[in-house]
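Hey,
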Amino acid sequence: MATFKAIRIDKADKGTTAQLAQFDEAELMEGDVTVRVEWSTLNYKDGLALTGKAPVVRRFPMIAGIDFAGTVETSSHPQWKAGDKVVCTGWGMGETHLGAYAEKARVKGDWLVGLPQGLSARDAMAIGTAGFTAMLSVLALEKHGISPKSGPVVVTGAAGGVGSVATAVLSKLGYHVIASTGRAAEADYLKHLGAAEVIDRNELSAPAKPLAKERWAGGVDSVGSTTLANLLSMTKYGGAIAACGLAAGMDLPSSVAPFILRGVCLLGIDSVMCPIEPRKAAWQRLASDLDRTKLSEITQEIALDEVSEWGAKILAGQVRGRIVVKIV
């Protein structure tokens, strides 16, 4: 095809515009693998890019979408051949490299991971960057020595994409999960995912004390700001919090007290430039440790022409669980 459908972001007089358009294949960027994209997904960062609420996009025109699953069409990379099923997340797609909300993508073969056995392309995008980030967080807690015997773990933004997957995975692994959410109506949903307790996010919204009562051995935080400061102040001696998001802000109004008086560790989680070997490990663990039935239950499907509308919804906190985008 000379052109293909894509969600194109352009610079405008005031901000940016995002719309479904025909994109010329000749405009695809350099890469040694061309993929027929079948499924994508909607993440918080996609919402920022689609709405222009943050300067996520750094070149124009841009095809939005930070992750995809599909089938290799052509390849000059030694690892990949036509017909291979692949997954790609991060690496600047939808930011500096033309992204995933399109019928075609051209990327570096070194960015790709083979679709894990037992996962469909749709399953992979039901997981997506959010689920991949959640698993990287779980792996970081495990590496730190946090196990179900260590004590409870907390998950913030628990009804969102990262939080839903983190809650489901941690509970399946045997952890006592305390799910924090600002949406009281989602309590039953979170308990169905495996949360043992559900707390209101307001418990973590007041200015943080240097040290507060110890409540958990570890946690996965996608919120940042005051919430993360409170998590750290309430973490047990020798515990750790995996920080992977900034839904409430980039600031961290904390103190050194949790680090130097309780030996607490703050584990930074980056899914964008994560090296390939940890990527493979995370995807294999997702294939084995995420209940496929629960994954299906937390996922809803939209069409390519609906992503802009849903991008605004995810920023407004109106999206529960995961959104998959059907491309073809």
